[in-house]
Specification:
This protein is mainly alpha-helical. It is built from 19 helices and two strands. A two-stranded parallel sheet has the order 1-2.
């Protein structure tokens, strides 16, 4: 702690039950990031301790390339360095042709790498999107899919991506995250939850001076030898302790799936909300049933985040008189 006294608050499944309606009421649209819960409790804990302002570290990863996806997409981009003739005449016909059905692990990994590396950006970043993994028609009802523009989110990503200044891959991903991840998710989450807890928040990593300095550093230098935040760590090595420079990154995400399985109190409350959501004809009831079954009986973590997203959606709808009886 380097001489600074600290206080610790452990968020519990019971805290979710106390906070879920605060989250639902605080945002002007359904906000599915589960880290809003611990963010609120962090802010409330500080307010109870008599603090008037918090300093948040949001923005550092998006300025200095600290997210794993930057390195992952950089690795995929290396495929384009292979001569086009060799890719088109040898690698792709072999691994995506005769070897397409092979389950041998090394072959499968190479095939998966080529499949993703061939995708254009930013579409390639969506290969880990949970909704696409299972397929929209498996999750949502026909009525919802008929009413929704399911291409709109991806069209928006493409529009922002195309607006990025002429720069390298890393900086283009950073630009996308500034416009979407930070503006629409992280900063909204932190400021909204701090407002709900009655405390102010400032973002020292997003001061104009530091932002301009980060923009002057080429993206290729921000990841050095494959190490995330490489430039940032080198630049701060003179005054930051090694324990900070080498520490593992930890987010604020909740282990919602394991808690849903473990806590009967939380599970019962969530199931009530999911049953209400199933009656709105938005999500297929059989998909909701399957998510809950797998989480309880097989793999507690796989569906955890999407269960939370559906829970907060129902909580948000129920909290508003104009939507409380909404049904497609």
């Amino acid at each position: 702690t380097y001489g600074v006294p600290i206080s610790i608050y452990d968020v519990t499944p019971e805290d979710i039950l106390k906070t879920i309606d605060i989250v639902a009421r605080s945002f002007d649209e359904p906000f599915g990031n589960s880290s809003a819960i611990p963010t609120y409790h962090c802010a409330a804990f500080a307010a109870e301790d008599g603090q008037s302002i918090l300093l948040a570290g949001d923005g550092g990863d998006e300025l200095f390339a600290g997210n794993e996806r930057y390195r992952t997409q950089q690795i995929f981009s290396w495929y384009q360095r292979v001569p086009r003739f060799f890719r088109k005449a040898v690698l792709e016909p072999f691994f995506l042709g005769p070897m397409a059905g092979t389950d041998f692990l090394p072959i499968r990994k190479v095939r998966r790498y080529i499949e993703q590396a061939k995708m254009p950006m930013p579409k390639r970043m969506q290969t880990y999107n949970f909704l696409l993994r299972d397929g929209l028609s498996k999750i949502f009802t026909d009525a919802f899919l008929d009413a929704a523009d399911t291409n709109a989110p991806f069209d928006h990503l493409q529009t922002v991506w195309d607006q990025a200044p002429d720069c390298d891959l890393i900086d283009q991903m950073l630009y996308l995250d500034w416009k979407i991840t930070l503006a629409d998710n992280d900063l909204r989450k932190v400021t909204t939850m701090c407002d709900a807890a009655g405390i102010r928040v400032a973002f020292p990593m997003l001061t104009n001076t530091l932002l301009q300095a980060a923009c002057d550093i080429p993206g290729a230098r921000k990841i050095q030898a494959g190490k995330l935040r490489g430039f940032y760590k080198s630049a701060t090595r003179q005054f930051l302790p090694q324990e900070i420079l080498s520490k593992q990154k930890h987010g604020f995400g909740l282990p919602f799936g394991p808690w849903f399985k473990k806590s009967s109190m939380l599970r019962d409350a969530v199931l009530d909300r999911l049953n209400s959501l199933a009656n709105r004809n938005i999500v297929r009831p059989d998909y909701i049933d399957e998510m809950c079954r797998v989480t309880i009986e097989e793999h507690a973590g796989y569906f955890g985040e999407i269960i939370w997203v559906m829970t907060i959606l129902e909580s948000w709808l129920s909290a508003r008189a104009e939507y409380s009886n909404f049904r497609l």
